[in-house]
Amino acid sequence: MATQLKRNSKYSEAEWTARQELAACYRIFAMMGWDEMIFNHITVKVPDEDGSYLINPYGMHFSEVTASTLIKIDIDGNKVDEDNPWHVNKAGFVQHSLFHRELPDAHAIIHTHTTATMAVCSLEGGLQPTNFYACNYMGQIGYHDFEGITVREEEGERLLDNLGDKRILMLRNHGPVVMGRTLPEAFIKYWALQRACEIQLATMSMGKPILIGDDVVKVHQRDLYQAQIPGGAGRAEFDAMVRKVDKIDTSWRD
Question: Which parts of the chain span the membrane according to its record (predicted)?
Answer without folding.
Answer: none
